[in-house]
Amino acid sequence: MPFFVRHRVRKKVEEDVAAAGRRRVTVADLEESKKRQLQRLSEGVKGYTLETCFGESGCQNAVVISAAIVSRLEELLERADLLSILRTHWGEKLKLHHQFRVTLADCPNSCSQPQIKDIGIIGETEVTCDPEACTGCGECAAVCEESAVTLEDDRLMGIDYGSCVRCGACARVCPTEALKAGRGGYRVLVGGKLGRHPQLARELAGGLDADQVVALVSQIVELYKAHARKGERLGAVMNRIGWDDFRARVLSGSSS
Ligand code: SF4
Ligand code: SF4
Ligand code: SF4
Prior knowledge:
Elements: H1 3-19, H2 27-42, E1 48-52, H3 67-80, H4 82-90, E2 100-105, E3 119-124, E4 127-129, H5 139-143, E5 149-152, E6 155-159, H6 169-173, E7 179-181, E8 185-190, E9 202-208, H7 210-227, H8 234-241, H9 243-252
Parallel strand pairs: 1-2, 2-3
Antiparallel strand pairs: 3-8, 4-7, 5-6, 8-9
Helix pairs in contact: 3-7, 8-9
The chain binds iron/sulfur cluster (3 copies).
The site of one iron/sulfur cluster has 14 residues, from α6.
């Protein structure tokens, strides 16, 4: 347990003991406090978590507006009743950290950590080039952290789409629309986790619109429900089935 958490727990136990009119903390007080902590951890478990980054609150880097997709995903996850599946594995021991985790980031900066969640959804935008409109200001190359913009004699030549992470930063600074961001879409990562055997999520698909993301998440959740053993995380299910097979099943819509 990190120092600041230990400190907070100790302080809380001391406060409770003082409120009871005593000055000395006993082993029984600590045990009682531990029981209450565990009780709190079990409350509010709904079988899944759905998080987002701070894009909605006006982050200038956001390349998608994900409010609509979030409510659709919330509905889907609620309907999937992951809680029942997890309860059959964990019973009364089910805790917040056992839940199926989905997160959405509104740009490739990925502040909500999609790489370590069961499903990570990342907003992206493809930038198109019109070299004729370039005035040679150099702003795009200066802002691109991937060195993906090619300028020659201060003129736009193109974008190396192999290095480009589709963040749209170059288009935001281009004064002439020689670089222009598209409508925005999503890529979906699966199988990230921490714990005893941490692993980063793998990219399942990219260039998806909102409908395709919702359909894909539905397939992934169904496959998870059909194959998870003893509260396995999605990453473990994926490893057991094998990446190629897993990928083929969810992309073809066959989750059995
Ligand atoms: S992921 Fe991107 S849009 Fe979301 S808070 Fe981070 S920088 Fe902003
Ligand atoms: S979209 Fe982002 S990564 Fe791609 S070229 Fe523009 S600034 Fe670079
Ligand atoms: S920001 Fe636009 S105008 Fe300036 S060099 Fe890049 S493409 Fe050309």
